[in-house]
Design brief:
single chain; 108 residues; alpha+beta; 4 strands; elongated
């Protein structure tokens, strides 16, 4: 899999960089979201948890795919601004709040 970022667009209002990319995967299947997100994180010097892959579309008849992803400044910004189903697809979850320990009830 060889990936090239074709366009980057800063979006300071949403605290993210919008990335359009092309993947050359001739002779292989279309790569999954996780592999693509890790490669984008590597190329943009960010963390995997801050990358949300919106879509990946294969080009018919070629071993090539094109897609769109968003690289947020922080995981908190991604959780605040991104749609829930996309976060779930990308494996990004909010840290679950710890439940207070149940106090021992007095025994009768």
């Amino acid at each position: 899999m060889k990936m090239e970022i074709t366009q980057k667009k800063e979006n300071p209002l949403y605290k993210r960089v919008e990335v359009y990319f092309t993947i050359d995967h001739n002779g292989e299947s279309t790569p999954g979201r996780n592999a693509v997100a890790e490669e984008i994180a590597k190329q943009t010097d960010s963390k995997r948890a801050c990358v949300v892959v919106d879509n990946i579309e294969s080009v018919y008849g070629k071993g090539m795919s094109k897609g769109y992803a968003k690289v947020y400044e922080s995981m908190e910004a991604a959780l605040e601004l991104e749609r829930d189903y996309l976060l779930k697809r990308n494996g990004i979850e909010a840290p679950k709040p710890e439940e207070p320990a149940a106090e021992d009830a007095p025994q009768e």
